[in-house]
Amino acid sequence: MRVLIAALAVSLLPAGASGEPALTGDGAFLRVLDMITGQFSDIKLGVGETAEFSKISIALEDCRYFPETPLSDSYAFVHVTEQSTQKSLFRAWMIASAPALSAMDHHRYDVWLIRCSTSDPDRGNS
């Protein structure tokens, strides 16, 4: 159900407030929390890259942002798997400005999108 809601939300975001279409970022900044140990980490991933945190792997498949608000209006397609079994724990769009809309529902780990990254210095988030 959450995946359907997130897909609907992303489909309703074809353009930003000024009508400009979303741009594709080079990567994303994600925050990961182990709720049992309290350990957290900020991770920078390029599109197509995977990072490991504790017992999970996080892969970034896509990241998009709106040119007028690149630091807040980002959304990314993320795939989280359990390392030992390769079981998929989450595979959907995450929205930086609304992290609860498509949150990863897991008893131990929490992952959320902070923003997309881009090589454009005018965007302020390289």
What would your notes on this structure say?
With 126 residues, the protein is mainly beta. It is built from 1 helix and 8 strands; from the N terminus they run αββββββββ. 8% of the residues lie in helices and 45% in strands. The longest helix is centred in the first third of the chain and has 10 residues, at 2-11. It is globular, with a radius of gyration of 14 Å. Residues 3-17 have low confidence and may be disordered.
Key traits:
126 residues; mainly beta; three-stranded antiparallel β-sheet; 8% helix; globular; disordered N terminus
Overall form? globular
Radius of gyration: 14 Å
Low-confidence stretches: 3-17
Oligomeric grouping of the chains: single chain
Strand proportion, as a percent range, falls in over 45%
- H-E order: HEEEEEEEE
The helix-and-strand class reads mainly beta
The level of helicity is under 10%
Largest sheet: 5 strands, antiparallel
| Tally of DSSP helical segments | 1
**How many beta strands in the DSSP annotation?**
8
Mean of residue pLDDT?
83
Task: Tell me the span between the first and last alpha carbons.
Answer: 34 Å
Summarize, please.
With 126 residues, this protein is mainly β.
Task: Give the helix/strand layout.
Elements: H1 2-11, E1 23-24, E2 27-34, E3 40-46, E4 50-53, E5 56-65, E6 74-82, E7 88-95, E8 109-117
Antiparallel strand pairs: 1-5, 2-3, 2-8, 4-5, 5-6, 6-7
